[in-house]
Amino acid sequence: xxxxxGAAKGAAKELSGSADREPEVMPxxxxxxxxxxxxxxxxxxxxxxxxxxxxxxxxxxxxEGLMHCTLTSFRRQRAAGYLxxxxxxxxxxxxxxxxxxxxxxxxxxxRKLEQAEALIEVQKKVSRLLEAFDGxxxxxxxx
Length: 143
Known about the structure:
Blueprint: H1 4-19, E1 29-30, E2 33-34, H2 38-50, H3 56-64, H4 68-80, H5 94-133, H6 138-142
Antiparallel strand pairs: 1-2
Helix pairs in contact: 2-4
């Protein structure tokens, strides 16, 4: 009967030896997975749409090195409009951009107004305090 503990120790040595090496950084890969361009996604979707026979989509996915869940994700993005050209998206119109700029400017001016009002309040309080200290001196008024 083989020594099970010896095999486990050997496997542990192999794992610890591989842990010392730096992970390989592959271009296009991030900690969140591979990032694909819009053009690539659209090309894959066009290829998938052309597949009509049984097994053709699987063959295309194997050739491209993709999984079915990635194709499903691409399809969802296309359905949601994320793969449409930016010019056709309604949230990037010039009018919307102008409204956003005006709202930003409005918030900035409101902050400045609040600061100016706070400064005026402080100046009023300082003025009252100075008047209280510099009030009429009874010694000087009697002379």
